[in-house]
């Protein structure tokens, strides 16, 4: 399915809801887009098309998010495909058995997503 076909389907759903405003709506107020091309260039292209959007990141995921009248459109990337992982130290986890894990920071080129706000989510 391409973007034009998807938009047509969304319009049909919107028209149905307008004709049936008492019908229940989906629980989540978001549309998550997975399976995008996992490159910095693709993230920059999507960020530019979204215009006013924000970055979110948690764990190994990087997301570009734009709000549309209370609904969120979210493009999801693996963080390592878009940002650079940098080990800044180590820390001891006092579990049984003890183990050492890396402490990392992620760098995302500011010019790559120029004009995109950043929001850290965990």
What does this protein look like?
It is a single chain. The model has no long low-confidence stretch (mean pLDDT 85). The chain has one domain. The strands form 2 sheets. The chain has a 5-stranded mixed beta sheet with strand order 1-4-3-2-7. It is of the alpha/beta class and 122 residues long. The chain has 3 helices and 7 strands, in the order H-E-H-E-E-E-H-E-E-E.
Which features does this protein show?
alpha/beta, five-stranded mixed β-sheet, two-stranded antiparallel sheet, 3 helices
Radius of gyration over C-alpha positions, nearest whole angstrom? 19 Å
Unreliable stretches covering 5 or more consecutive residues = none
How many distinct helices? Answer: 3
> What is the total number of structural domains?
1
β-strand percent reads: 35-45%
Distance between the termini: 33 Å
* Quaternary status: single chain
Number of strands: 7
In round numbers, the mean pLDDT is 85
SSE pattern, N- to C-terminal = HEHEEEHEEE
**SS-derived structural category:** alpha/beta
Main sheet attributes: strand count, strand direction, barrel closure: 5 strands, mixed
Give the overall shape: elongated
Helix content: 25-40%
Give the strand order of the largest sheet, numbering strands 1, 2, ... along the chain.
1-4-3-2-7
